[in-house]
Amino acid sequence: MKKNIIAATLSAAMVAGLVPFAGAANAVAAVPTREKGQTVYVDNTRVYPTGYNIADNNYFKLRDIGTLVGFGVEWNGETQTVEISTARITPSTEGISDTAASGAVAKISDQRITVDGVQVNMTAYQIDGNNYVKLRDIGKQVNFGVGYDNATASVRIDTDAPYTESTTSASGSAITKWNKTMAEFNQAMIKCNWDKSKYLTTAKQYAPIITGKSNGTVEDVIAALDAMTGAPVDAVSFDDNPVNMFWANELRKALGQEVTSGSDNNDTPAVTEEMLRAWELKMVEAINEERRKAGVAELEIDPNIMQRAQWWAKHLTTEFRHTTWDEIEEFADSIGVSANDIAGGENITGGSSDFNNVVERHMNNFMTSEGHRNTLLDKDFTRIGIGYAVGSTGSIYCCQVFA
Fold first, then answer.
1. Closest Cα partner for 384 from 284, 290, 297, 266?
2. 250 and 189 Cβ atoms separated by less than 8 Å
3. Helix 62-69 with 135-142: angle, nearest 10 deg
4. Cα 318–356–362 angle (5° rounding)?
């Protein structure tokens, strides 16, 4: 057993360094946002604007954001000016599709930008003749909410909320605060020195911040830790599980719940393929039940997406993170389908080796997390695949894929 828990912070802002290109002055690398595993939602609806990650920030096509949020964007050829109007119009998703290309080159735009007739200083890049702006910059100018859900690696746009600095971007203060909270929680739990009563007291103290509920319980904290896919999910703990999973299990033990730990013996829990496949079908039923309650159409099982979900569930047993676009493309090639046909929303959870009520527990994890719940209930999805897998230590993982 390791004597320390290494507090590793996973920044929600994905890296895309400034890389000069030979023969292209002031050109930088632009990586499609989707290749960084990030998704975009407007008012809880999954959308697909063309976006690139440049120098750790997301830049989206200005016209796409104008259409999705509902504000005017016009080009004045006489004055060579991009004219933005903050007067709101009806938002729309018509004509919006993610056409970002790998290997794109971005240059700082030399075009003027005005907001309601007043010139503004706003960093913009040109890629293939289109202007791309930093989402938090345009949110501030037009005044709409911009945030980031660290648990699901999703960019969030709230058309009715005012712009606030605390929720600006993946690399902003909201994520910094979240990372700091989890690091403090980690250290506070270590200081409990294996005292179960102190574990419970500490969890209750941190429950309001971790769960967002003023009266959050220890069970709520466990659900939040189970659902966490970031900050600091990659920390290594005593049993070689992600640190959030380690503390979730310790809190279960403190509550008197039985937790089967594969690290205490060399026996792999007796999970059969039949059990895994049964859990997958049961999860589909549970999801469709929640969609019926929400008045959303049920999802149909897609065999290719099932393969994709099962493939990634197995990956989770050794590395707990979301897929990248490159990985999806590689897998799609291996089964002879288009990556676009098996890509979409993705929820992951797991880490506990408790086999009791597995589907119910995982479903609770997803439904108590706003980001996961929004993906699960997204009306635009029509097909689904579920994957279950168990690791060498007995930990159980679930991957939901929506398309």
1. 284
2. yes
3. 50
4. 60
Span 301-342, pLDDT tens digits: 999 999 999 999 999 988 888 899 999 999 999 999 999 999
Structure tokens of 8? 């590793």
Query: 153 - beta bridge partners?
Result: none
Do the strands 81-88 and 112-115 form a parallel or antiparallel pair, or are they unpaired?
parallel
User: Alpha-carbon torsion 332, 335, 341, 342, what sign?
Assistant: negative
- Report d(CA 277, CA 367) in Å as an integer: 22
- Strands of the sheet containing 383-390, edge to edge, are 300-301, 383-390, 396-402, 345-350
Residue 242 has pLDDT above 70, yes or no: no
For 352-370, b/e burial (b = at least 16 CB within 10 A) is bbbbeebbebbbbbbbbbe
What the block records as the tokens of 154 is: 């999703």
pLDDT at 299 over 70: yes
pLDDT higher than 50, residue 69: yes
pLDDT beyond 90 at 39: no
Residue 20 has pLDDT above 50, yes or no: no
Q: Count Cα neighbours of 252 within 13 Å in the Cβ-side half-sphere.
A: 22
- Whether the CB-CB separation of 139 and 58 falls below 8 Å is answered with no
Closest to 131 measured CA to CA, from 32, 55, 41, 64: 64
Within 10 Å of residue 35's Cβ, how many Cβ atoms? 19
Smallest Cα–Cα separation from 108: which of 127, 122, 120, 124?
124
Evaluate if residue 18 carries a pLDDT over 60: no
